Amino acid sequence: MVPPGDAPAPVVPAVDGRRLGQAEQHDTLAARNTRLTPGDLLTLRVRRSQVTAGGDAYQEFRVPYHKWMRLLDALNWIAENAAPDLAFRWFCGSKMCGTCAVRMNGREVLACWEAVEPSMIVEPLRNLPVIRDLVVDRTRYEEKVASLEPWIERPKPYAGFPEPLTHRQMKNASQALDCISCMCCYSACPVIGLGNLTDFAGPAPLVQLGQTALDPRNNHEKVRRSIELTGIFNCVSCYKCEEVCPAHIPIVTGVIEPLKAKAAQLAPEMAGHSFALRDIVARRGRLDPGELVLRVQGLRGLRNLGRIWRLLARRKINPIKTFLGIKTSAAGAAARLLGDGVGKP
Amino acid sequence: MKFAYYPGCSARSTCAELNEATHLVAKRLGLDLVQLESATCTGARELRAIDPAGFYALNVRILALAESHGLPLMTICNTCTLNVLDAHAAFVSDPELAKSVNARLAGENLRYSGRTKISHFLWVLHEEIGEQRLRQLVVNPLAGLSVAAFYGCHITRPPAHYGFVDSRNNRALERLAEILGCRPIDYSGRTECCGFHTAAHDERVAIKLTGKQVLAAKAGGATTMVTPCPLCHTVLDSFQPEMEKDIEQKLEMPILHLPQLVGLALGLSPEQLRIDRHMVPAGVLDRYAAAASTLPK
Reduced to 3 states, what is the DSSP secondary structure of residue B274? Predict the structure, then answer.
């Protein structure tokens, strides 16, 4: 209540446009931890393998809530009271072993760390074959990681302790070392979800690689060899991996981008797209999408005549500007800031 | 309300209609936009990886330009928004970086002190104009228009900037659609990725990622989609014939830029908003065109 004489509250309440929906969807840790009262019945619909003769299906369970209940507690209750044959993995129960990841209501979570919700659909991780119920086969991931040789090969003999390393040099590698290999990011990645369409290794193997490839003591030749196997420039930068990472690793900005920088330095042919974009901006100030496509795809870019015609008809591309390389009003500033050749192969 | 306005590259080339529509709609909303003519590209996703120093220089320069006008910065592209947010966050947390970037900007007497407020047009609508004022400004309610929001990524992730536990809980576009009189459609693709950032070298990813989302929106009853990002628009609109071929189904889904949807409700016609520049025709909007023609200009 506003005391008399004080300024009245603004007519339009202050709104944070970035977070609209957060309150009404209970999207805070506090809200998620206080929505239920002990004794409430939770509904879990769990994806089961071969639960009926017809094949896979969702089986519904009602589980009584107790204070601070985690998804793992609910699964254990089901295994002890309703379905002793329910298959799910867990070991440490404290966010360290990385074995209990599942999808809850369409989002990758660690069962041992996730507060239960009143109603939950629980499924195995995506992008890995299901062995049974909530258990997936991690072989694909483990083989990929092994192929990337995630270890350090010193080009010079060990100089003895203490090694001359700074926090800044080790920042990204050390963030990647927080990975518990839970596969949440691998399941959330939309590019991995497209199967073999690209050669993208996926976020989890890249984080494993980052632990050693981003360590300045590593042999550059070995790092180059590893990065060449990752298809890293197929990352679409959607940040879904970062969003679900229980270890809060900045996977895109702290691992994938520094690895792309390594690729640009050690295997520049992989980063043709990035160098073309930088060059166009440095020369013309702003990006000309037509020039970028032509530079990246070459004559292949002219193959899709149907689309080129459609784009021309709506004046979405301007071949005259593209072929003459006409500069924009930002060209002067871009030349001053990027025209020094830094970052070129 | 006055803003330093950064349209980005896309709205100055392939999506020029977005820039035109933004200016028209801003006028109706009472927003005074000072377009930053000498502002460069923010470097998309590429520069930040291969040349971080160049990335910070370009983005901090944009923030410094806004600061030199003493104005908050308004953007209309998700990726540009995230780039300037990231550059600002790095600038204020790393004094060494701040010093080196300012040294690079000193040549043109620019200096950033870290004070520019960054806001996307979507947030400006909710925070600065506000629901109450918006409702007063709606002269052509879009009753009956079923709109599926396609947020894209960089306006709702990463969590470090936006704070959602689950980015799917963002409701800013649906709330806006309701204010404009539309029926927002719920569907699985709202906050999925359009794949734009790898489309220059492999457009198959973008086509595969988006076809199923547009189909889901259509199955949910959407007659049009709206996006706050010109990069998502480019994929959803320009690649739609390829998506149809890939999923072997007709989509024919008109895709609107956010300011175009707002403009229709504010009484502007589809022609004024340059919806005719889109690849997928928006016949579903004809009745709003007729309604707009009866309104006082």
Answer: coil
**In chain B, how many domains are there?**
2
CA dihedral B7, B12, B18, B21 (to 10 degrees): 90
Q: Domains (ranges, CATH) in chain A?
A: 38-136 (3.10.20.30), 139-157+166-266 (1.10.1060.10), 271-338 (no CATH)
CB A274 within 8 A of CB B47: yes
Which helix (DSSP H) or strand (DSSP E) does residue B287 occupy?
helix B286-293
| B278 contacts in chain A (CB < 8 Å) | 314
Q: Residue B27: enclosing H or E segment and its boundaries?
A: helix B16-29
Chain B residues within an 8 Å CB radius of A251: none
Whole-number Å distance between alpha carbons of A91 and A246 = 16
- Distance of alpha carbon A45 from alpha carbon A61, whole angstroms: 6
Looking at the fold, whether B260 and B238 belong to one and the same domain comes out as yes
Task: Give me the pLDDT at residue A145, please.
Answer: 97
Distance, in Å, from the CA atom of A289 to the CA atom of A316, rounded to the nearest integer, reads 10
Task: Give CA–CA dist A338/B40, Å, rounded.
Answer: 11
- Is A235's Cβ below 8 Å from some Cβ in B? yes
Structure confidence at residue A31 (pLDDT): 87
Same domain, B91 and B149: no
Residue with tokens 């910065």: B73
Output the domain CATH number for residue B53.
Answer: 1.20.1050.140
Residues of B in contact with A117 (CB under 8 A): none
For residue B112 the two structure tokens come to 């950033």
**CATH number of domain containing B249:** 3.40.50.11810
**Rounded CA gap, A155 and A218, in Å?**
7
Which of A61-65, A157-161, B55-59, B269-273 has the weakest average pLDDT?
A157-161
One domain for residues B137 and B244: yes
Where do we find the tokens 């709606």? B138
Structure tokens given for A316: 């979405």
Note whether A281 contacts B47, CB cutoff 8 Å.
Answer: yes
Note whether B10 and B152 are same-domain residues: no
User: Best of A11, A18, A199, A275 to disrupt the B interface by mutation (most B CBs within 10 Å)?
Assistant: A18
Per-residue model confidence as pLDDT tens for chain A (345 residues): 444 445 554 444 578 999 999 988 999 888 888 889 999 999 999 999 976 667 779 999 999 999 999 999 999 999 999 999 999 999 999 999 999 999 999 999 999 999 999 999 999 999 999 999 999 999 999 999 999 999 999 998 888 898 889 999 999 999 999 999 999 999 999 999 999 999 999 999 999 999 999 999 999 999 999 999 999 999 999 999 999 999 999 999 999 999 999 999 999 999 999 999 999 999 999 999 999 999 999 888 788 888 888 899 888 999 899 989 999 999 999 999 998 654 454
Does B273 share its domain with B143? yes
Checking if the pLDDT of B35 tops 80, the result is yes
Q: Do A316 and B166 touch (CB under 8 A)?
A: no
Q: In this structure, are residues A43 and A118 in contact, taking their beta carbons and an 8 Å threshold?
A: yes
pLDDT at A1: 40
A25 min Cα distance to partner chain B (Å): 6
pTM of full prediction above 0.90:
yes
ipTM value for the complex: 0.96
In the block, tokens 């080009």 appear at A155
Residue B276: closest CA among A310, A306, A314: A314
**A20·B58 Cβ contact <8 A:** no
Quote the domain boundaries for residue B103: 2-120
